Amino acid sequence: MRAAVISFPGSNCDFDMLYALQDFGVDAEIISAKQNSLTGFDAIFLPGGFSYGDYLRTGAIARFSPIMSAVTQAANAGKLIVGVCNGFQILTEAGLLPGQLLPNATPGFICDEVALHVANGETAFSSAYDVDETILIPIAHAEGNYFADETTLNKLEKNGQIVFRYVNNPNGSAHDIAGIMNEQGNVFGMMPHPERAVDAVLGNIDGQNFFKSILSGILTKV
Amino acid sequence: MKGKKMTTVINSELSPEQVRDSKIYTQWGLTETEYNLIVAELKRLPNFTEAGIFSGMWSEHVSYKKSKPILRKFWSTNERVLQGPGEGAGILDIGDGQAVVFKAESHNHPSFVEPYEGAATGVGGILRDIFSMGAQPIAVLDSLRFGELDNTHTKHIVDGVIAGIAGYGNAIGIPTVGGEISFDDVYAGNPLVNVMAVGLIDQTAMQVGQAKGIGNSIIYVGAKTGRDGINGASFASAEFSTEQASDRSAVQVGDPFLEKLVMDATLKAVKDHSDIIVGIQDMGAAGLLSSSSEMAAKAGMGITLNLDLVPQRESHMTPYELMLSESQERMVLVVKHGEEQPIIDLFQEADLDAVIIGEVTDNGRYILEFEGNTVADVPINFLTHAPKQDLPMIVPKRLSEFSDTQYQPDMSQVKETIKALMAQSTIASKASLFKHFDAMVRADTVIKPGGDASLVRVRGTKKALAMTTDVNARYLYLNPRIGAKMAVAEAARNIVATGATPIGITDGLNFGSPDNPEVYYELDQSVAGINEMAKQLNTPIISGNVSLYNETDGQAIYPTPMIGMVGLLDDVSQATTMAFKHAGDTIYLIGETTDSFNGSEIQKLQLGQISGQLFEFNDEAELASQGLVREAIAKDLLASAHDLSEGGMIVSLLESSFAGDLSFNIATKQSDKYLFSETPSRFIVSVPQTKAADFEHMAGKQATKIGLVTSESDVVINTLTQTIVLSREEIQTVYQESISWQLKG
Predict the structure, then answer these.
(1) Which residue numbers of A are catalytic?
(2) CB within 8 Å: B445 and A202
(3) Are B498 and B593 in contact (CB under 8 A)?
(4) pTM of the entire structure?
(5) If we measure between CA atoms, which residue out of A130, A110, A111 comes closest to residue A120?
(6) Chain A residues 85-144 with a CB less than 8 Å from chain B
(7) Which of A60, A195, A207, B83 could serve as A20's disulfide partner, Cβ 3.0–4.6 Å?
(8) Contact A50 B444 (CB under 8 A)
C-alpha cells in the first residue's frame, strides 16, 4: 500500500501521521500541497495543523491548494481519503464531506484525551474495532464543533455515515459527531487524532485499530 | 566613509545638535554620562539614528550592563557542555552524536501591556533562539506568575497570556509540555511570562551566530519589517508607573504561521547547505540592530548594511525605525559570498523574503546606508559593549528583621484546613489552564503537564528528555541565597521523580530595579545560591535570560529566578509518574520532616502573608534523597514517585492519589502540623508489595513506611493525635475546580 500525507503550509501533524503509517509498514511519503498529482497512491491523508495559518475560516484557503483537485480526483476514483483535525476541516470546505466545523461551543482550544464510541464498526476506517467499543483518543482543536442541517444529519444517521461519536461531547458537535464518512464510504474525516495513540510508550494505543482497519481494507482490495 | 555623505538629518528627525540639546536620548534610556562617552568616542555628536542604536544596544535588556558582573559568575562548563552562554541557546551532549539545546526567555513587560501578543511573541522569540542554532524545537514550557485571581485586571491578563501561548504554540506545532503557574499579589502589576524551549540537534549540524569572512553576505530572511515593537528593548529596561500611560506601540505582534515557514526553511537550509552558511541569528530584542552587530562583533569583523534593501511592511520607515523595530519572525543569515542563490531559492520556495542586505567587512565599523547616504558609522566593538556598571548592593532591611522562630500553624480544624489548602490558587490544579495548550503534537510526549517533570522521548532511540521549570519565590523573599538553592533542588527533584538524571539548567532571572541596592543584593545572592546547588548536582547553567525593572510605583516583585532544568533518561521504559498505580502498594516518605513553616503555603493561607527566617536546607540530605529515588527507579522498584514542595506531604499524597484514581491510608508518628511542613529534600513513593523488602533494604533509614494505597473512596490520615477521614471525590473536586471558580467569580 502506498500512502500520501499532504503537507499544507502550516500543517503540523504531517510527520506524526507519516510516522504512524510507517509504524504499520505502510510505504508513506509527504507530498507538498503545491503539487498537483497523486497518481499511484492508494490512500491520501490530510493531517492536522493550521493550514495557511487558518486566520480565515479553518481550511478555507487550503481547499484552493493545487493538490486539492488531485484529492478530489482520487476521491472520485474511489481511493481512500482521510482527513484528521485540520484535514477534516479542509475536506468539509472542499465539499468532499458534508457539514462544517464551527468554533467549539465553549470558545478556546482544548487538548485532551476523550472517549469515543464506535458508531459504525463496518467501515474502511473502523472495521478492526469491536462494534459499540469505547476508545480513548486525543483531541486538540479550537474548531471541532460539527454542524450540518437537519436533513444532512438525518441522512448521515440513516446511512450509517457517522463512524465515531463523542461519549462526553467536548465541543458542541451535532449528534455528538466526532468522525463521518461520505456516502460511498471512501472519504472520511474526524477531529480526534488517532495518530497520537499508536505507541505504547505514550500510554495509549487505542488508535492502532484505526490504522489496522484502513490497512486491511486496502490489502483485501488489492 | 567611502565617499558617501554623512547625513545628519532624515526627514523631520532632530539634528545632532537638537539630539544633544533636547536630550531625547534619555527618553530612550541612555544616561547623560553614556551620551558623553559616545560623543568622546566618535569625536563628534551622534546623529538621531546613532543615538537611537546606542540606546537599543546599551539597554539592559540587550547589553546586560548592570547584571553582567553577576552573570559572569555562573558556572557553565562540564563534560557535556558543547555551547555555554553567549549564543542563542546552550547545548549539552546527550550521547549518540545528539545534543539537547535549551533556553528560557521572559516577556514580562509586553505581557502586562498586551497579554495575548506579549505572551505569543514570547513563545515565538524563544523558538527562534532554538532553531537559529540549527536545532529542531521539541517542547515548550511556561513559567507564569500572576496576581491573585480576586481582581478583574489579573483575570484579563491570565486569559490573554494563556490564549497567547496557546495561539502561537499550538499553531506552530511545538507541544507545550509543562511549566508551572502561581499567584501572588506581588505580581499584580508585574506578571511574569517566562518561556523555556527545548530542541534536539545532531552535533554535526550546530550553528553559531557569527559573521565571519570578509565579503560574505548578510541575508535577511522572513517577515517584513514594520513599526511594531520599536525600541522594545528600552521599554523592557524601565519600571512601570501608573501615571505613565502604557506603551502599546512597544509591543510586537506575532504570526505563528509565518514562523513555522521560517523555522522549517531555516532547518532545511542548515540540513542541506551547512557548507555555505557561516552564521545564523534570530532578530529578537533590538531587532536587526543587535543581531547584525553582535554577529560581527563576535567574529571581530565589521558590517555594512544597505537599509533600502530591508523588506518593509510600511512606507517611509526611517533608519531609526528599521533598526529598532522588533517585528517578529525575522532572521539574519551570513552566507558565503557568491553562493547565496541556493539559500535565497530555498526561502523563496517557502514564499518567504530572503534578501542580501549587506556584507561582512574587516574595518570593525558598523555602517548603515540609506537612500545613498551613510546614516550611521560607529565602531562595532564600542556599540556592542555597553559601559559596565558596578552597582552597589546592601542586605535588604527586612532580612535582619525577620523572626528566627518558625511559624506554628493553627491546627484546630485540620480537615477544613486541608480543603482550604487544596483550593489555594498556588496548590489547586492548573489543568483548566493547561488544557488550552497542545501538549501532544509531534506525538513524543510521554509525561504530559501535571506531573513533576514532563518527559519527551527522543524518537528513534530509547532515550527521553525530562524537563521542568521551578521556583518558589516566597523562599527567596525570606532568604535569596538559600531560596535559590531550594529552587534548583526542587527542579532536580522533579526531574529525578521521572527516573531521569538532571543534566543542565537555563534560568530566567526576574527581579525589580537593579538600581535599588537591596534588589541588586537579591540578584547577587540568588546567582550564588543557584551556583552552589548546580555544582553539586553537576547541572551547569548553559543559558538564560534576565528581566529587571519588574516593579510598579517602587514596589518590586519577589526575587524570582526561574530554574528551567533538563534531565536525561537513558531508557524511556523506566519512566515513572507521580500517580499511585495499585491498591496494596506500600507508601514511603523519603527524607526527614521538621518545623519548616516560614514562607510555607499554610503560613500564607492562615496569615495572608509570609514572614520569618527561612527554614534550613541540607545539601547532603537533598543529594541523598535524590540518589535513592534515582537508584530505586533504575532498579524498577517504584510504582510512583512524587516530590514534596508547596503545601507539604498532604498535598503530594493527594496529588498522587488524584492522578491514580486511588486513595491511601497512612499513619505518621508526628503531630498534625507536620502534614503541612515544607521541609525540602523529600519524596513520596509507592512500592509494590513484592518489591517492598528490596526497597527497604536499599533505603535503610532514608525512607519511612507510612501506609498503603487503597481502592476506598475515602483517604485516611492517622496522626499522633487523631484520625482524619476525607472523601477523595469531594476534595478532588475542590482541587480541580478551584481555579475555574476563581476565574469565573
Answers:
(1) 85, 193, 195
(2) yes
(3) no
(4) 0.95
(5) A130
(6) 108-112, 138, 140, 142
(7) A195
(8) no
